TrEMBL record:
Family recorded in the similarity comment: Belongs to the short-chain dehydrogenases/reductases (SDR) family.
The encoding gene: fabG_1
Gene3D superfamilies in the cross-refs: NAD(P)-binding Rossmann-like Domain
Alphabetical list of SUPFAM superfamilies matching this protein: NAD(P)-binding Rossmann-fold domains
Keywords for the protein's UniProt record, in alphabetical order: NADP, Oxidoreductase
Gene Ontology CC terms, in alphabetical order: membrane
EC class (word): oxidoreductase
Pfam families assigned: adh_short
Name the record gives this protein: 3-oxoacyl-[acyl-carrier-protein] reductase FabG
Listed EC numbers: 1.1.1.100
Record-linked InterPro entries: CBR1-like, NAD(P)-bd_dom_sf, SDR_fam
Listed PANTHER family: (+)-NEOMENTHOL DEHYDROGENASE, SHORT-CHAIN DEHYDROGENASE_REDUCTASE
Top-rank taxon: Bacteria
Amino acid sequence: MKIALVTGANRGIGFAAARRLARHHDHVIVAARNADSGAEAADRLIREGYSASSLTMDVTDPASVRAAADEISDRFGHLDVLVNNAGILPEATNADPKEVLDFAMFEQTYATNVLGPVAVVEAFLPLIRKSPAGRIVNVSSTVGSLSHQTDPDSPWHAMVVPAYQSSKAALNAITIVLAKSLADTPIKVTSVCPGWVQTDLAPGNKEQAPDTPEEAADVIVRAATLGDADATGTFIDAHGPVSW
């Protein structure tokens, strides 16, 4: 049985990715911090004819993550796909930053966007190693690309959200390190940029963003279903490679 798990999967990009992955896998696990929200999302997939279940997990709480990994180990014994989708952008609603670099914003953002994926991978990697073709997908962003941040011609050059941008740059670095460290295994690790998506991540996204969560899920599923001959340690969006 092929098992996929998506963090932050009760809504938005995470739910869309879980739905799409359910078409490729025997079972998809909807991981969410809120138990009721996760259960509702999983039930929705079940009503649509998919095999799904919910998993209560707070990625900012290592004990919660370890307990979740133990639960999946007991229920399934392995994991084929892990999508680190849970992410936040508190700077978008921080109307009065203390300074250009706001420690509170960094602390809050890194807890979810960086330390969260680290805790999740640490806890679930032993289960992914048991898969014949494990895949780890880290949902990043082009705004975290150092190349785009330093290129005046980039459409993202003017954006200044230091905690979020640096958290995604750090997540990209984690992708690279994991890919190199797991190069002698069947596991492939990919960073993906889902695009500017109609979600609740930032005010105005739903009204202004051009891409739907369903469209954004395409690149996540592409990375989650890489073939044996495909490269590991890449950064991609809907159009292809993204510069680091």
